[in-house]
Amino acid sequence: MVKDMFGMKQIQLGIKYNKMAKKKSSLTLAQQSVGIRLSSHEKTCSERMAHILTSIERLEKKVDTLSDSVSKGKGIVAVLVFLGSIFAAAIGFFNYK
């Protein structure tokens, strides 16, 4: 009204009109806390999954090394059996003559 009476602009008068506050989202406090709990739960689950993934990778490496060791062990046993049989055959051959 003052603006209209004197023909002055709002800036010249220095009057700032209060605008109505924007309506906040209709989330209740309970919904917000559920969202916070859910996000923290997702964070802990992602950390757990990352830990499980690294553990699985480490276990796969161990299984690979153990299977290699077992394969080498089987090969060594086969070689020892072969050499033992040759040694036994040689002793048997020389004892009969």
Features:
mainly alpha, 97 residues, rod-shaped
What does this structure look like?
With 97 residues, the chain is an all-alpha fold. 79% of the residues lie in helices and 0% in strands. The chain has 3 helices and no strands. It has helices at residues 2-6, 10-13, 29-96. It is rod-shaped. 0% of the residues are buried. The mean pLDDT is 78.
Which runs of at least 5 residues are low in confidence (pLDDT < 50)?
Answer: none
Q: Which structural category do the helix and sheet elements fall into?
A: mainly alpha
End-to-end separation in angstroms reads: 137 Å
Q: What radius of gyration results from the CA coordinates? A: 42 Å
Q: Which outline best applies? A: rod-shaped
Largest sheet: none
Q: Please count the helical segments.
A: 3
Task: Characterize this entry briefly.
With 97 residues, the protein is an all-alpha fold. It contains three helices and no strands.
